[in-house]
Design brief:
With 290 residues, the chain is of the alpha/beta class. The strands form two sheets. It has a five-stranded parallel sheet with strand order 2-3-1-4-5, with helices on both faces. It has a two-stranded antiparallel sheet with strand order 6-7. Helix 7 packs parallel to helix 13.
C-alpha cells in the first residue's frame, strides 16, 4: 500500500529552537510527528534510496491516517539537493522555517561541537579558519546563510508554501507562533500544550556523562543487551540521552564584542537577502545599524 505524503515539514534552522517547536507540536491532537526527530528522509541517502514508502512504514507505521503527518528535520537546510528532492516527491507539502540570529546560531553550534568533543579550537580560531576556507564542513557559518538557503527552496516552491518565523517569536510569544502554524496547516488554533514555554537543549560546553558510552562498550552484558533492542528504540534513547540526560544546563559565556561585530558584517548581505525574500525586516537590531 502506497504511503501518504507528509503534510508539513519543519526544515530548520539548526540550533534555532527546532526541538522546542517539535516538542510543542507533538502535543497537538490533530498532528502526528514521530519521536525520532533527527532522522531525515530527503537528506539521508540510505532512506532516500529505499524510498518514501519504506521510510513511512518505519516512522509513521502507527500514525493515524486522519492526522496531519509532519517531520522536524533541521538538516534540511544543510544540503543543497534537499529542496529539489522534496519537490519531486511531495510538491504540495507545507514548509516551515524557524530562524535564529545567525551570529548566536553559529556560536551555539560551536558550543555544541565543543560539548560533544567534535571541536578543539577556540571559537575565534574556528571562525578565522572558516573565513579563509569556503568548505565549511562544520556548518558554523554556512548554516546561518538563510538568504542563500531559503532562495533554493523558493526556486522549487511558491512563497505561499513556506512559513517563516523567528526563534525570538517562539521564546517571547510561543502561543502566537503555534496558532499561526495551526492556521497555516488548517488545524485548530488555540491549543496550548502542557510544556509550552519550556526551553530545550540549553546546554553548557561539556557533557555530564562523557564516560558512560565508552564504559558500557567494555561491559559485554550491557552492550549485548543494548544491541538486542530494536534500532528504532535505540534511536529514541540516543536522542533522549544526547539532548536531555547528558547535557549540562548553563548560561553561555558571552561572545566577544569584537567577534560579534565581525560576524554581523559577515552576515549582513545574507540578512539583507533574507529580508528581501521575506518582504519584512528581521528582529535582529544589530543588522539594522550602520
Amino acid at each position: 500500500m502506497k504511503a501518504k505524503p507528509l503534510d508539513f515539514l519543519v526544515i530548520g534552522a539548526h540550533k534555532a529552537a527546532t526541538t522546542a517547536l517539535f516538542r510543542y507540536l507533538r502535543h497537538h491532537p490533530q498532528l502526528f510527528l514521530p519521536p525520532e526527530k533527527e532522522v531525515g528522509f530527503f537528506s539521508n541517502d540510505y532512506w532516500w534510496e529505499r524510498g518514501w514508502d519504506a521510510f513511512a512504514d518505519e516512522f509513521f507505521g502507527k500514525a493515524p491516517v486522519k492526522a496531519l503527518w509532519g517531520k522536524v528535520t533541521p538538516q534540511y537546510m544543510a544540503y543543497p539537493e534537499v529542496p529539489a528532492r522534496i519537490r519531486a516527491v511531495m510538491p504540495d507539502v507545507k514548509l516551515v522555517a524557524i530562524l535564529r540570529n545567525p551570529v548566536d546560531r553559529a556560536y551555539s553550534h560551536y558550543r555544541m561541537a565543543l560539548r560533544t568533543q567534535a571541536e578543539k579550537r577556540s571559537f575565534d580560531e574556528a571562525v578565522m579558519d572558516l573565513q579563509h576556507n569556503p568548505d565549511d564542513s562544520t556548518g558554523y557559518l554556512a548554516l546561518g546563510q538563510y538568504g542563500r538557503i531559503l532562495s533554493t527552496y523558493l526556486k522549487e516552491f511558491p512563497p505561499t508554501q513556506l512559513l517563516t518565523f523567528f526563534t525570538e517569536d517562539l521564546e517571547k510569544r510561543p502561543q502566537l507562533v503555534l496558532d499561526g502554524i495551526a492556521r497555516y496547516l488548517g488545524v485548530d488554533a488555540g491549543f496550548t500544550p502542557s510544556n509550552l514555554g519550556k526551553r530545550y537543549h540549553v546546554g553548557g560546553t561539556r557533557q555530564r556523562f562523557s564516560w558512560l558510552v565508552p564504559t558500557a562498550k567494555q561491559v559485554y552484558p550491557v552492550w549485548w543487551l543494548w544491541k538486542q533492542l530494536p534500532e528504532r528504540h535505540r534511536r529514541i534513547i540516543r536522542f533522549w540521552f544526547q539532548t536531555e540526560a547528558a547535557t549540562t544546563s548553563a548560561p553561555p559565556d558571552p561572545l566577544d564584542s569584537r567577534q560579534r561585530r565581525q560576524l554581523v558584517e559577515y552576515y549582513r548581505s545574507e540578512v539583507q537577502q533574507l529580508e528581501a525574500l521575506l518582504g519584512r525586516a528581521v528582529p535582529w537590531e544589530e543588522f539594522h545599524g550602520s
